[in-house]
Specification:
Blueprint lengths: L10 H11 L8 E2 L2 H7 L2 E6 L9 H10 L3 H5 L2 E4 L3 H13 L3 E6 L4 H9 L3 E5 L3 H15 L2 E2 L6 H17 L5 E5 L4 H13 L4 E7 L4 H8 L21 H10 E7 L1 H15 L5 H12 L1 H4 L3 E6 L13
Parallel strand pairs: 2-10, 3-4, 3-6, 4-5, 7-8, 7-10, 8-9
Antiparallel strand pairs: 1-2
Helix pairs in contact: 1-3, 1-8, 3-5, 3-8, 5-6, 8-9, 9-11, 12-13
């Protein structure tokens, strides 16, 4: 992928991605909850990527990357490092195309996510739960296989794919004042920035992050990337740091990055399960947690909320 990371995806890339992935992903529904509207004082429109193929929005970026490969590239397969959802979604997309896939995963990743990756036919290679270990083990895998690296978020093909989510949202819901999504590495938020800055530039973009893994919020305040190596949070999908490509979008288009405590995240997750009757993983609950915590910011507004995934280890629910 030499040189590819320096390519900043464009609106045309998002449009091309929509066409490329149309037969491989769902157009997910937008749900509402009167009770959550009353709690927040806002009109909330939940874009349910937990109902996406492979259970997460990352099916979009992974499919765009996989189906954009030449036959020669595809023959060598694809590889990535992932705490779960990107790996699962890359395995799904690779399986659809019939090519090999290897995923480097922290040994502490939920068993359900490891099982899902293997279930789509991919190989799992375990590493220690730190960015340093993840990247070192992954380098060995690429050297061994010659596979095409599809980064979980710092990849223009992936960001262009994720950008299709907010394109659907603003087509389905008119007059949004804001959109909020979880932020770890920033792939979904970057996709929102790419689409909304072109189609709906007056819509404010917020990112939501755990207090215990708040490197994006600290980066935003400092005006430069600050990376934590191995933060601990129930929102396991949000432990990774921003990279140059996602930082490009975040610093240019995000209004604010809001944080929530572990207790607030779990409480918001329970609300989504109980009131909306849908399965959302902890990372997906962070936006609602920050909306309820910052009521004055969102009260009276029409807010799109990205529920990014629903892949949960049912044997390790955070309230058990």
């Amino acid at each position: 992928m030499k040189g590819l990371a320096m390519h900043i995806p464009t609106f045309d890339d998002m449009l091309a991605a929509r066409g490329r992935i149309a037969h491989h992903v769902h157009r997910t529904p937008v749900l509402t909850s009167r009770m959550l509207n009353e709690l927040s004082g806002a009109e909330l429109f939940f874009k349910c990527e937990n109902l996406q193929k492979a259970g997460a929005f990352k099916a979009r970026g992974a499919s765009n990357a996989v189906f954009g490969l030449s036959d020669e590239q595809a023959a060598r397969g694809v590889a990535t490092h992932s705490s779960g959802n990107h790996g699962t979604c890359l395995a799904y997309a690779a399986g659809r195309r019939g090519i090999p896939c290897t995923v480097v995963m922290p040994r502490t990743a939920p068993q359900a996510k490891k099982d899902a990756v293997r279930g789509y036919g991919a190989r799992v290679v375990e590493c220690e739960p730190s960015t340093t270990s993840r990247e070192a083990v992954f380098a060995a895998v690429v050297a061994e296989t010659g596979a095409e690296f599809v980064h979980p978020y710092n990849d223009p093909r992936v960001i262009a794919g994720q950008a299709t989510c907010s394109a659907e949202l603003i087509e389905d819901v008119a007059g949004l004042d804001a959109v909020i999504a979880p932020i770890g590495g920033g792939g979904m938020v970057s996709g929102c920035c790419l689409t909304l800055s072109n189609l709906a530039p007056k819509v404010k973009i917020y990112a939501a992050e755990p207090e215990q893994a708040d490197d994006a919020a600290r980066s935003f305040r400092a005006g430069r990337i600050i990376a934590d190596d191995a933060p601990e949070t129930v929102a396991d999908g949000l432990k990774v740091p921003l990279k140059d490509l996602t930082w490009h979008f975040v610093k240019a288009h995000v209004t604010d990055i809001l944080t929530a405590s572990e207790e607030e995240i779990v409480a918001a997750m329970q609300l989504i399960w109980k009131r909306m009757k849908i399965v959302a993983e902890p990372s997906s609950a962070v936006p609602l947690a920050t909306i309820l915590k910052n009521r004055d910011t969102f009260a009276g507004k029409r807010v799109g909320v990205i529920i990014t995934g629903g892949n949960v280890d049912l044997d390790r629910l955070p309230w058990n």
